[in-house]
Write a structure and sequence with these properties.
There is one protein chain. By secondary structure, the protein is mainly beta. It folds into 2 domains: 21-212, Galactose-binding domain-like (Jelly Rolls); 214-300, Immunoglobulin-like (Sandwich), CATH 2.60.40. The chain is built from no helices and 20 strands. It has strands at residues 16-25, 37-38, 42-43, 49-54, 73-78, 92-101, 108-116, 128-135, 141-148, 154-156, 174-180, 186-194, 202-215, 226-230, 236-241, 246-252, 258-267, 270-274, 281-289, 293-300. Strands 1, 3, 4, 5, 7, 11, 13, 16, 17, 19 and 20 form an 11-stranded antiparallel beta sheet that branches. β14 and β15 form a beta hairpin. It is globular and about 60 Å long. The two termini are 20 Å apart.
């Protein structure tokens, strides 16, 4: 028997958010100088570059190609201080996205696909990938950082102690996200990455900003088309859609790592989501439809 409950699985005061993407950069077309502004854009060979690239002309040292990218092109870097890339001493290079209009928007989320070299001892403590933002030309605020983790890998710094301790960048690009709590007229995004040797590779793709509006958490019905149920099986939830085309379900842990993704081929009926293999924790569930998506924090016990 399925017991219909509120989306609030526990006594945590967690709100439901309906989010809509309002900005996307996927690097499928050249936007240098118009949509985005790199410090340089140069390729001096397969092991030395800071540029918009594709797998067809760029093969990573540690794998044949990146997997999981959106489309064909993405932005990536390796050995930035090569004389024909950034120049001697310029291991840190920046990619800027300026003046994104956020007037009147609240509850803004940043998300992107990230990739890198997961082999041990690939990176040094001086290597990193950091995404920052600023509102109305104010101070830069860190959003997400990937730092060396003591094992020569770049991992997410989840507690701001300047040491990677979370998700490790690897050859399969993963979607991670963070919230932008401040409001204003415009937001700038800055990607700062440091690499001074061959093999210290990183990549970013499908940069998106979305806005969420908070609703009451007292009703299981997400809108007129989508409902969520909790089953009597531990860790198993059920989604029911009457009219909406459900594209996919994504579940993230609190570090922003995508831990489960279910692609549903435009499903318009009931289906179950089994989270029983996940550790007991709070997760973020994202339900993607054909015209919007819904984000909800849930507690899996």
């Amino acid at each position: 028997m399925i017991r219909k409950t509120t989306f609030l699985i526990t006594l945590f005061a967690i709100n439901l958010t309906i989010a809509q993407v309002f900005y996307t950069e996927d690097f499928e077309t050249d936007g240098n100088g118009t949509r985005y502004f790199p410090e340089v854009e140069n390729i001096d060979g397969q092991n030395d570059f800071f540029a918009r690239v594709q797998d067809a002309d760029h093969t990573a040292n540690f794998t044949d190609d990146y997997l999981g990218e959106s489309g064909t092109f993405y932005w990536a870097g390796e050995d930035h201080d090569d004389p024909q890339v950034g120049g001697s001493g310029n291991q840190e290079l920046e990619l800027l996205i300026n003046d994104i209009n956020i007037s009147g928007r609240t509850n803004i989320f940043f998300s992107a696909l990230f990739g890198g070299n997961a082999l041990s001892l690939a990176y040094e403590t001086a290597d990193y990938v950091i995404v920052e933002y600023r509102i109305d030309n104010g101070a830069w605020v860190p959003g997400i950082s990937f730092l060396e983790n003591g094992n020569g890998q770049l991992a997410q710094d989840t507690n701001a102690d300047n040491l990677g301790d979370g998700f490790i960048l690897n050859g399969t690009m993963e979607k991670l996200e963070f919230s932008i709590s401040a409001t204003g007229s415009e937001v700038d995004i800055r990607i700062r990455a440091a690499s001074n040797s061959s093999g210290e590779e990183w990549a970013i793709d499908l940069i998106e900003l979305s806005e969420g509006s908070t609703l009451s958490n007292s009703n299981v019905q997400l809108n007129d088309e989508v409902e969520l149920y909790r089953t009597n099986r531990k860790g198993v939830f059920r989604v029911k859609s009457s009219n909406a085309l459900i594209k996919s379900i994504e579940v993230f842990d609190l570090s922003g790592k995508l831990v489960i993704e279910i692609k549903l081929q435009n499903t318009t009926s009931e289906f179950t989501i089994n989270l029983s293999k996940l550790e007991t924790s709070i997760y973020v569930m994202k339900i993607n439809t054909n015209h919007t998506f819904f984000i909800k924090k849930i507690y899996k016990n």
